[in-house]
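fyi for ur records
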Amino acid sequence: WTWDTIVKKEMPLIACLYDMDVFLLKPFSADGWLGDALVGGREQGRPKGIRYFWPGLMFLRTPLLPAIETVDLWCGRVRDEPVDVGGQFSLYLEAHPEVKTKGISGTSVISRAEGLDSLPVEARESYEDEFKVEVFGGAFLHYRGATGWDHPSPDLVARKTAWVRRVVENCLSGTWRMPA
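which gave:
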């Protein structure tokens, strides 16, 4: 909805799309990060060579995109493969191979055994594997599952939300820092 009713009409120099459970924890320049790419963000892929960007964290140089009216960020099926939201964008990328793209680095789901070093030092001790957060580009924290699609217990939601809030507030105030 946002893409079709606002972004394609307003044509900002850079459109930044992100989910409501993605939090910026340190300064980040979309323009600087994109460089000469027209599209960037969290890449996803599916079998049969399907490649697209998740609109939960996506940056687009809208005025420079060819045939912008054909951009489709919906989910569904591509070549009979199920795709998440943003999956239809794979067809745009196939039709426009001249569009330079850039994927943002990131962790998979963080656990105490893997990826903990992507979090501020002060947040690591209280992190629980059940939180299942992700970090993208060393700057964005993805809460994951904020809608409750995975049916977490109310107690887990309360603990995770308090932990994420503490991380966000401390990083934004400058008390904690994301690792370099």
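The radius of gyration is 17 Å. thats all i got for now
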